[in-house]
Amino acid sequence: MTNKLRKRFIAGAVCPQCKAMDSIMLYFENHVEKLQCVKCEYKDVQSQTDVSEQVERTADVIGVFKP
User: Fold this and answer.
1) Where in 6-62 does DSSP place strands (E)?
2) Which among 46, 36, 41 is positioned nearest to 13, based on CA atoms?
3) Is 46 within 8 Å of 29 (Cβ atoms)?
4) Residue 1: its pLDDT value, please?
């Protein structure tokens, strides 16, 4: 079985490396949020600190609507 990644482009985002607009895509791999530029191969990974901060902020949330 193939594990298909769902990649989404972030409208209006500018790559911090090559400064290209609308070239940043967001995807989750092994429950970790990752960013990648399709123009210059810039990559960024959500740090463990960011993950723990998100958990703290959403601790009081009962449910999340996912359309």
Assistant:
1) 8-9, 24-29, 32-37, 43-45
2) 36
3) no
4) 46
